[in-house]
Design a protein that fits this description.
The chain has 1011 residues and is α/β, with parallel strands linked by helices. Among the domains are: 401-590, Jelly Rolls, CATH 2.60.120; 651-742, 2-Layer Sandwich (Phosphorylase Kinase, domain 1); 765-945 and 980-1010, Transferase(Phosphotransferase), domain 1 (Orthogonal Bundle), CATH 1.10.510.10. It contains 17 helices and 46 strands. The strands form nine sheets. A 14-stranded mixed beta sheet has the order 1-2-3-4-6-8-10-12-13-14-16-18-20-21. Strands 23-24-22-36-30-33 form a six-stranded mixed beta sheet. Strands 25-26-29-34-31-32 form a six-stranded antiparallel beta sheet, with no helix packed on it. β23 (411-412) and β24 form a beta hairpin. α10 (765-785) packs antiparallel against α12 and α12 packs antiparallel against α14. The radius of gyration is 33 Å and the shape is globular. This is non-specific serine/threonine protein kinase. Pfam families: LRR_1, LRR_8, Malectin, PK_Tyr_Ser-Thr. Keywords: ATP-binding, Glycoprotein, Kinase, Leucine-rich repeat, Membrane, Nucleotide-binding, Phosphoprotein, Receptor, Repeat, Serine/threonine-protein kinase, Signal, Transferase, Transmembrane, Transmembrane helix.
């Protein structure tokens, strides 16, 4: 580390050296390389100033720069008697550069440092970098880089630091990494890496730091790590690896920071660390360690953090722990430790958490938090209080509910006065807090590496929240490790536990602050109900409210809700120490009838049982009388079936009163009508909070009827994703059946591409490409990622809406089919649109998610060509876009498919990839079509498509043509099939077209003019 800093300092000094005879210059090739690098990165350098002069914007600071900001290009001008300069370092940190990883770095042959940390770069790591013979440091931390790690990097014999943390890299660690001859740091935390650690890594005897947490590795921690005798820091947290921790770790006597957590596998004993004398941080959390705590742990006098929580440790706490005089944090939470509570634990200065153990407590203060010691549930056998450390606590009454505004003040959320209690007590590393009513919380852990003198356990939101009851999401409680909420004095029975979340610490812009990933687990009553829960992904973005419901059986008058960080997710974006569980609010409500308390009489006594019974009978009689009158007037009857259909649906939307919808649409003013669809009219509305909505009104004459309406509510309400149209809620009052959607400013993709000319949008190729990716992501979520696997059945350009930023969102789930074998109640009737339906679905009614893939392929062709799939040339002649594409493919002229409105302003490689993806998606054989997740990877450039068909007029070195099935043969095969397969299912159009929201009317003359 010192040598590297000294080298950079020396080079910086050389930059300032000026030859009095003649000025040093930068070779033209390197100057041109910098121009290309800047263009690729999205960095606007001032080339009117010499890059090696330190002037212009080559070595300047920004106003109010973020943490870690650096903007430095360093040259060494000592070559050829101080007449020639060479670029030796490029450090552009925390600038949120929007470009890609530049391959052009190879044109700087003297480059030693590449530091592009904390930007917004995408693309892959160029294998060509492996030819850069003087590179010492590569740091790409905190970007959007995908693809595999190129093994060619191991060819750089001078490389000491390889920092690739917090990206989206995939694949295995290359076998070639064993060839590194000078490497000291390999940091790969928070990627998507898989496979076992290659045995070739055993040769890395110079390694000093190795981090691989938050990945998806397999296999065990290899014993060859015993060869890493120079290692100082080892991080293996939430890596996917299994135990045991190998005995070879004993040879790592230079270890200073050891963090291993959340291992899979069987039980194992404590690793032999008795010769490791320099440890400052020792974390062996959730590693399935059994047996007693070794005495040598108490002799580690340099320790600052000791975390052995959530193992199976037994026996007593060693008395020589008293010698850990400099240790600030000790976590022994969640073990089976026994024996008396050591006296040293009550000394000032340390944060100690002994919660959830079997200790024999001699604490007589009836306090779960003496000083900085957390004793919550630290001992067993107590039967007099709600928990062993609260002996004197008694329940004055029993409760049927529990509501907490986590980290915030007391709030009322509705007109009924539903109140969430305040929870503003500052947390801490080993903290227990008891409320004034019937709940408490216990927090364990401190945020590591944040370099702050005091951790933050409550976060205040400064942005607006979308969703119901936004006041519940203005604050949140955080924990770096484990956060447990404990409700007591509850009446036994079944309860619904509702947990409210909103990601309020990340951003939703195009900066590195938006790249954080918060992942944690949730337990209710000791059972894990959410694994690898990601608030942002589940809610479809940041600052969006989401809740999850769970059923809990309360048998001992208590409910326990625990949130646990299992070592996954980023820990350094936007800043170091941003990770761990976060929760906004909790509500627990009885699932059984809550009895009404006796009503006091005037003299202070309760009413008699007879009086209460009389009142109940009178009330029931009145209710029956009113219902009878309503039924006689025809207000009750079969129309209520919609309400019955809604029962049992786990709706994730709000319910809007009719008066609110009328106010928003000015009582359904015809001036606010934006179309007429199959369901009936659609209105634009404005809510009182300024939210613009689209209201779909179910017509009594609707051919779709109530079944599709109910189905659509159920399907959409369960789905939350940035590329699915958001259903704000519904309104069901009397004969009014309404759906309330978010309003999409730019209408449908169909209108934008090939609608009437006055409505068309000028969509350049980058926008079209992002639309393709967005639709693919939405379908991948429906097919593979959502809890309910859903087939849309009617993907087409009119069912893709565009918001104000031209982000695509899939609409129309009235035809959605749950992709679950047990759901036999869902109709399998063929429903879709001519020209978009997969052959197996159209002819045999055979439906899988590959039907959507086929339709998506057709939409891709429409986006590339700017033409509708069923363009009409004349009254007698029509053609399908897919037929035309295959004809051009056969002629080697695929580029003729491109929309002429794009002229030549498009990326030819991306266009060719997109067309080939479309042709693969429209394969006549469903099983040969790719999955939507594979499509996303290909369109984003993370994977290569198999069977590439490039245009003969385009020369791309990266493309290697391969033969694929002729679509002409496929078409002929389909014709042959149609002669022997009877059509026993009806052809229909979409039952819920997007024209319900944004209708499009185009006559034949319009199409004749366009073609």
């Amino acid at each position: 580390m010192f040598f590297r800093r000294f080298l950079i300092f020396s080079l910086t000094v050389l930059v300032c050296s000026v030859n009095l005879g003649r000025a040093a210059t930068l070779p033209a090739d390197e100057l041109d390389a910098l121009k290309q690098i800047g263009k690729t990165l999205g960095k606007e350098w001032n080339f009117s100033v010499d890059p090696c002069s330190g002037g212009g914007n080559w070595n300047t600071s920004a106003p109010n720069p973020p943490k870690g900001y650096n903007n430095t290009v360093t040259c060494n001008c000592s070559y050829e008697s101080n007449t020639i300069c060479h670029v030796v370092s490029i450090s552009l940190k925390a600038q949120s550069l929007p470009g890609s990883v530049p391959r052009e770095m190879v044109r700087l042959p003297y480059l030693q440092v590449i530091d592009l940390s904390r930007n917004y770069l995408d693309g892959t790591i160029p294998p060509e970098w492996g030819t850069m013979e003087q590179l010492v440091n590569i740091s790409l931390l905190g970007n959007r880089i995908t693809g595999p790690i190129p093994g060619e990097l191991a060819n750089i014999s001078t490389l000491t630091d390889l920092v690739l943390e917090y990206n989206q890299l995939s694949g295995n660690i290359p076998l070639q990494f064993g060839n590194f001859s000078s490497i000291k740091r390999i940091l790969l935390t928070s990627n998507n890496l898989t496979g076992e650690l290659p045995a070739t890594l055993a040769k890395l005897t110079t390694l000093e730091e190795f981090r691989i947490g938050d990945n998806n590795f397999s296999g065990s921690i290899p014993n060859f790590i015993e060869n890493w005798t120079s290692l100082k820091n080892l991080f293996i947290q939430g890596s996917g690896l299994s135990g045991p921790i190998p005995s070879g770790i004993a040879s790592m006597t230079k270890l200073s920071d050891l963090r291993i957590s959340d291992l899979n596998g069987n039980d194992s004993t404590f690793p032999p660390l008795n010769n490791t004398k320099n440890l400052k941080t020792l974390i062996l959390r959730s590693c399935n360690i059994i047996g007693q705590i070794p005495l040598f742990v108490g002799a580690m006098t340099t320790l600052k953090v000791l975390d052995l929580s959530f193992n199976k440790l037994s026996g007593s706490i060693p008395s020589n722990f008293l010698g850990l005089s400099d240790t600030d944090f000790i976590y022994l939470t969640g073990n089976s430790l026994t024996g008396p509570l050591p006296a040293w634990t009550l000394k000032e200065g340390k944060s100690i958490d002994l919660s959830y153990n079997n200790l024999m407590s001699e604490n007589t203060s009836s306090d779960c938090q003496p000083r900085r010691l957390n004793l919550f549930e630290s001992s067993k056998g107590n039967t007099t209080g709600i928990t062993s450390c609260l002996r004197d606590f008694r329940c004055e009454k029993k409760y049927y509910f529990l509501r907490i505004n986590c980290g915030g003040k007391e709030v009322k959320v509705d007109d009924k006065g539903t109140t969430y209690e305040a929870d503003g007590e500052t947390g801490g590393p080993s903290k227990f807090v008891l409320s004034k009513t019937n709940w408490a919380f216990s927090s364990t852990g401190n945020f590591l590496d944040d370099r702050r003198s005091r951790d933050t356990y409550i976060w205040d939101n400064i942005s607006s929240i979308s969703g119901q009851n936004p006041e519940l999401y203005m604050n949140a409680r955080l924990s770096p490790l484990s956060l447990t909420y404990y409700g007591f004095c509850l009446v036994n029975g079944n309860y619904t536990v509702t947990l409210h979340f909103a990601e309020i610490m990340f951003t939703d812009d195009r900066t590195y602050s938006s790249l954080g990933r918060r992942i944690f687990d949730v337990y209710v009553q000791g059972t894990r109900v959410l694994k690898d829960f990601n608030i942002e992904n589940e809610a479809g973005g940041v600052n969006k409210a989401i809740f999850r419901n769970f059923t809990a059986a309360v048998t001992a008058n208590t409910v326990e809700i625990r949130l646990y960080w299992a070592g996954k997710g980023t820990t350094g974006i936007p800043d170091r120490g941003v990770y761990g569980p976060l929760i906004s609010a909790i509500s627990v409500n009885a699932d059984f009838p809550v009895p009404t308390e006796p009503v006091p009489s005037e003299n202070g006594k309760s009413m008699s049982t007879g009086a209460i019974v009389g009142i109940i009978i009178a009330v029931l009689f009145t209710i029956l009388l009113v219902l009878g009158i309503l039924w006689w007037k025809g207000c009750l009857g079969s129309k209520d079936t919609i309400g019955q259909d809604l029962k049992g649906l786990d709706l994730h939307t709000g319910s809007f009163p009719l008066r609110q919808i009328k106010a928003a649409t000015n009582n359904f003013d015809p001036a606010n009508k934006i179309g007429e669809g199959g369901f009936g009219p659609v209105y634009k509305g404005l809510l009182s909070d300024g939210t613009i909505i689209a209201v779909k009104q179910l017509s009594s004459k609707s051919k779709q009827g109530n079944r599709e309406f109910v189905n659509e509510i159920g399907m959409i309400s369960a789905l939350q994703h940035p590329h699915l149209v958001k259903l704000h809620g519904c309104c069901i009052e009397g004969n009014q059946l309404l759906l309330v959607y978010e309003y999409m400013e730019n209408n449908s993709l169909a209108r934008a591409l090939f609608g009437p000319e006055e409505y068309q949008l000028k969509l350049d190729w980058p926008t079209r490409h992002q639309i393709c990716i967005g639709i693919a992501r939405g379908l991948a979520y429906l097919h593979e990622e959502s809890r309910l696997k859903i087939v849309h059945r009617d993907i087409k350009a009119t069912n893709v809406l565009l918001d104000k930023n031209l982000n695509p969102k899939i609409s129309d789930f009235g035809l959605a089919k749950l992709d679950e074998e047990d759901n036999t109640h869902i109709s399998t009737r063929v429903a879709g649109t001519f020209g978009y339906m997969a052959p197996e679905y159209a002819m045999r009614g055979y439906l899988t998610d590959k039907a959507d893939v086929y339709s998506f392929g057709v939409v891709l062709l429409e986006i590339v060509s700017g033409r509708s799939n069923t363009s009409i040339r004349s009254k007698e002649d029509s053609f399908y876009l897919l037929d035309w594409a295959n004809s051009l493919k056969a002629k080697g002229k695929l580029m003729e498919l491109v929309d002429p409105r794009l002229e030549s302003n498009f990326n030819k490689k991306e266009v060719i990839v997109t067309i080939n993806v479309a042709l693969h998606c429209t394969n006549a054989v469903g099983t040969e079509r790719p999955s939507m997740s594979a499509v996303v990877s290909i369109l984003e450039g993370r994977e290569h498509i198999q069977g590439f068909v490039p245009d003969s007029s385009v020369s791309l070195d990266e493309m290697k043509p391969k033969e694929i099935t002729s679509q002409d043969q496929v078409t002929k095969s389909n014709d042959d099939q149609s002669q022997i397969i009877s059509m026993d299912v009806p052809w229909t159009t979409s039952s819920t077209p997007t024209s319900d929201l944004y209708p499009i009317t185009m006559d034949t003359d319009y199409w004749e003019n366009r073609t």
